[in-house]
């Protein structure tokens, strides 16, 4: 079941820079970001959004060992998921991260 099928409004951006340039990004209930992007990391994107006043949950997607990254990113991200990502696992993480939003 996809996020849209669960009732979430999904917006995709070509890059972290595009997300930061789009005012609607600050309206998001949850951020799902890749760890490695062309201009910045997922951590860089989240920190820039935090600096702009966005304080909602974020989920980091990575090809690296998720358990290692989760220890490093625990204070920033609600969850860290290792690729390949099972669709139901992503949906469960978003449900959990947004339940208090």
Give the helices and strands as they follow along the chain.
HEHEHEH
**Helicity range of the residues?**
25-40%
Class by SSE composition: alpha/beta
Quickly name the level 1 CATH class.
Alpha Beta
CATH architectural grouping: 3-Layer(aba) Sandwich
Q: Give the C-alpha Rg.
A: 13 Å
Q: Termini, distance in Å?
A: 21 Å
Organism: Sphingobium yanoikuyae (Sphingomonas yanoikuyae)
Protein name: Response regulator
Modified residues (4-aspartylphosphate): 34
Keywords: Phosphoprotein
Structure write-up:
Keywords: Phosphoprotein. It holds the Pfam family Response_reg. With 101 residues, this protein is an alpha/beta fold. It has one domain: Rossmann fold (3-Layer(aba) Sandwich). Helices cover 36% and strands 13% of the residues. It is built from 4 helices and 3 strands; from the N terminus they run αβαβαβα. Strands 1-2-3 form a 3-stranded parallel sheet, sandwiched between helices. 23% of the residues are buried. The mean pLDDT is 89.
Layout of helices and strands, plus pairs?
Blueprint: H1 16-21, E1 31-34, H2 42-51, E2 58-62, H3 66-73, E3 79-82, H4 87-98
Parallel strand pairs: 1-2, 2-3
Short summary:
The protein has 101 residues and is α/β, with parallel strands linked by helices. The protein has a single domain, classed as Rossmann fold, CATH 3.40.50.2300.
Give structural attributes:
globular, 101 residues, single chain, 36% helix, 4 helices, 3 strands, alpha/beta, Rossmann fold, 3-stranded parallel sheet
């Amino acid at each position: 079941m996809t996020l849209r099928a669960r009732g979430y409004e999904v917006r995709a951006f070509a890059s972290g820079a595009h997300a930061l340039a789009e005012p609607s990004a600050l309206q998001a209930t949850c951020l799902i970001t890749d760890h490695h992007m062309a201009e910045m990391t997922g951590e860089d994107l989240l920190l820039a959004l935090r600096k702009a006043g966005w304080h909602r949950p974020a989920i980091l997607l990575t090809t690296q060992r998720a358990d290692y990254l989760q220890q490093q990113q625990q204070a920033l991200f609600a969850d860290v998921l290792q690729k390949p990502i099972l669709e139901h696992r992503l949906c469960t993480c978003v449900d959990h991260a947004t339940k208090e939003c």
